[in-house]
Write a structure and sequence with these properties.
Layout (H helix, E strand, L loop, with lengths): L1 H15 L1 E7 L5 H8 L5 E7 L9 E7 L2 H13 L2 E3 L2 E3 L2 E4 L26 H57 L1 H9 L8
Length: 197
């Protein structure tokens, strides 16, 4: 009994040293997380939580640090500054982890489990049905929100690509004007410096 209590106490310490990250880009890897956080704390482990709704949806991760004090610092920092991914900001959320987030958590030796079967005539049966329906509704809403978020991100990426192409076209046009012989003749006439063209 003593060893299971010690194991659970060690696990609770691990939970206190862990930060939960949400809304991470699907392209984020363990090395990206380590690189981003190593400047603030020593990262002991990174564990991505599987997303069963789809591979292109935002990721979540549990990142264990070397101290529980640094968890508060990281959470505060992420709340104030956007998480950068390939030079692009992303609104990542961070908060201290809780025991229920770990699928490999040991059994609490002091827990007491109570259960009972519900009969169809039981008043709690209606509550259980409502909770089941509410869970399905929330799952559908989350899937729809993720779809909208991906559409917004794709739209933003397309806008940024179009802006980049426009800037490139402008610079190319300006460069073409400067190398044009008529522009050089006009510059000489008005004593303007156009470079070594």
């Amino acid at each position: 009994m003593g060893s299971s209590e010690e194991e659970f106490a060690a696990f609770e310490q691990k939970v206190r040293r862990t930060v939960y990250f949400d809304n991470l880009s699907p392209q984020v890897t363990e090395s990206v997380m380590r690189t981003a956080l190593d400047q603030f704390a020593t990262v002991k482990s990174v564990k991505f939580i599987p997303n069963y709704l789809g591979p292109s949806l935002p990721q979540t991760a549990l990142v264990e640090l070397d101290s529980s004090k640094k968890v508060e610092d990281i959470v505060t920092m992420i709340g104030q500054y956007p998480f950068m991914m390939s030079g692009m900001p992303r609104p990542v959320r961070a908060r201290p982890a809780v025991i229920e987030m770990f699928d490999d958590r040991p059994v609490n030796p002091n827990r007491k489990v109570e259960y009972r079967w519900l009969e169809p005539s039981d008043p709690d049966m209606e509550v259980a049905k409502q909770l089941k329906n509410l869970t399905r509704k929330h799952a559908a809403e989350i899937a729809h929100m993720h779809k909208l978020q991906l559409q917004e991100e794709a739209k933003l990426a397309a806008q940024q690509t179009e802006t980049l192409k426009m800037h490139h076209k402008k610079f190319k046009m300006i460069d073409g004007i400067i190398t044009d012989t008529s522009a050089i003749r006009l510059a000489r006439k008005y004593n303007l410096n156009v470079g070594d063209h």
